[in-house]
Predict the 3D structure of the following.
Amino acid sequence: MERLVYFEDLGFRGYKSVWDYQEQLLAVNLALKSNETTHQQTNNYLLFVEHPPVYTLGKSGKREHVLISETEMKEKNIDFFHINRGGDITFHGPEQLVGYPIFDLDKFKTDLGWYLRSLEEVIIQTLAVYGIKGSRSKGETGVWIDPDKPGCERKICAMGIKCSRWITMHGFAFNINTDLNYFNYIIPCGIQNKQVTSLQKELGRYIPIDEVKPIVKENFARIFEVNWEN
């Protein structure tokens, strides 16, 4: 069965409007899925976006992992949303590639572990293009560098998803040239004493985000075995 995915690069857009858009796409797919005659007609989407500075706290996340007050966030022009994905607190901001797959896993594999490992593999293979060895950290989602070297562990891509009737939303946040100072005001993903890094920091040079996007997209197509419908 050919798997088609509608791809959209949304550019630079506020968090709430894109969250609402994901919810709309999810709702349409859920309606199609609940109808026996349209069950097979769900659509798959992959959205790329950059957000203005925003902290998002997952449904099981702890508010104390946000280390600054709402007043301080306003002063720094950082938005905050308590949202319906898994995971804890994370940051989205300029020069970070955020990807939101709205995939019907009935058309792939109904296994969230497989899905998350596949998302991680997309980023791991992207890092390999730049000569960086991305890895997984046992018991933690996302993509890491040197996860087995105490004191050197650093996360380069965070992940958090929601899944309803095997339809996904939310996704990954890949630090390209991200201002890492924003992570000083939170305990990223609720994980203490571990660092956050970026492609720029690892390579010591600026990497155009538009250079990275097609590499990530190509790895998506290969790992998830999809074709693009633009």
Remarks:
- The two ends are 19 Å apart (CA to CA).
